[in-house]
Description:
By secondary structure, the chain is α/β, with parallel strands linked by helices. 32% of the residues lie in helices and 21% in strands. Helix 5 (160-168) packs parallel to helix 6 (188-198). Residues 1-12 have low confidence and may be disordered.
Amino acid sequence: MAILPNAIAVTGPQCRACGTALSVSFCDLGCTPLANAMVKPEDLAGGETYYPLHAWVCDSCFLVQLEEFRPPDAIFSDYLYFSSYSPSWLDHAKEYAEAMIARWGLGADSRVVEIASNDGYLLKNFVAAGIPCLGVDPARNVAAVAEAAGVPTRVAFFGAETARQLREEGVAADLMAANNVLAHVPRLADFVEGFAILLKPEGVITFEFPHLLRLIEETQFDTIYHEHFSYLSLTALEPLFARYGLRVFDVERLPTHGGSLRLFATHSSAGHEETRAVSRLREDEECAGLRGLDVYRGFQAKVARVKQGVMRFFLEASEAGKSVACYGAAAKGNTLLNYCGITRDLVSFAVDRSPHKQGHLMPGSHIPVRAPEAIPETRPDYIFILPWNLRDEIIDQLSEARSWGARFVIPIPEVTILE
C-alpha cells in the first residue's frame, strides 16, 4: 500500500521569484507520488511516498508555483524522460535550430549552450551544422546518451556557480536555449542569474515553456506536477529578468505542450530592439486577468468539473463492459489519473514508446506500462490519450485501431470521445 504523506517542505511558503509570503491558492490536487517516479513491480510492496500537490499564486508578482518538497537532485539526477522518443518534438527541435542559425548568422565561430539538454535531441542539429555546442544537464543517464551522439555535455545543475565555472573555462554563449526547464527550477533567481553571467554582450537566450494563460483557459491542470515548480507568464518573468539585467525583446507563440511561449531575451544594454509581439502579449495577459487575482481563484472549480467528466467516462465504460487502454505514461497523465482516482481496476494497461518506462507501473495508479504493440494485440474498445498535446501524432500512429472499432478519448479541456 502507498504510505501516507511524510514530506516536510524544504522551503517555506514564499515566492521563489520575489520572496512574498504565499497565501492565495490556485489549485489543490491533493497528495500524489512524483509524476515521473515509475515503480518497478518488485518494489511495489515497499510503498510510495506521497507529497502535497498544491499550487499557489504570488499576489505580488503573480508567479504560480508549488512549494519544494524534494530537492532537485532527488528528481532529476537519474531521469526517465528522454526527449528523442517523440517524433514531433524532434521535428520542433530541428526547425528551431534551422531558424536560429539563419536569424543570428551562427557559424563555426559561434557557441550554442543548451540548459537541460537531455539526450542531445536539439544540439545534435547544431553539431551537424558545424557549430560548437555545449549541453548542461543534471541527469547522468541522459547526458551519457547525448555524449554518445556526439553532443558535449556537462553534468551539472545550472545556476550562477556553474555559469561562473564555465566562464572561467572560456565558455561564453552567442545563443542559449532553455526549453521547458524554467518550470523545473526551484531556485529560479539563481538560475536566471546564470544566464546573465554566461551570455555574451549581444547574445540571445530563448526560453520555451507552457504558457500559464493557456493552462488556465483550457483547464490544463494535469500539467501541474512536482517536477514543475513554477507555471509561467510574461507577467511573472519580466520583473525577475530585469533584476539580473535581462529583458525580453521578442516572443513567439507555439502550439507545443498545449500552447507555449518562446521568449527571446538579452542583456538590457544589448542592441536588439523590442518587437510589437512583446507588447501584444503584455496586453493579452492583462486583458485575461493575469495581473489580478480573480482568474487564479476561479481555477479550482474548473478543475473539479474536468475531474467529474473523467470519472464519469471510466465508470460508464466499466459498467458497459468496455476495455480501456491508456496511451502514454506521461507525467501529465499521472497527475490526471491520481487526482481523478483512476487505477488499474478501470484501465487494462498503458503503453509508451520509451523502453525506459516499459515493464514499470505508473506511480499511484499502478497501471502496468507496456510497448505500443500491446494495443493491436489486445484491441481495446477505448484508447485514452494521456499526452493530449500529441493527440494528432498518436492517432496517426494508431490509425489501424479504427479497424476494430476502437475510439480515442481526449481528457482536456473536457472529456471528448472522437468518433
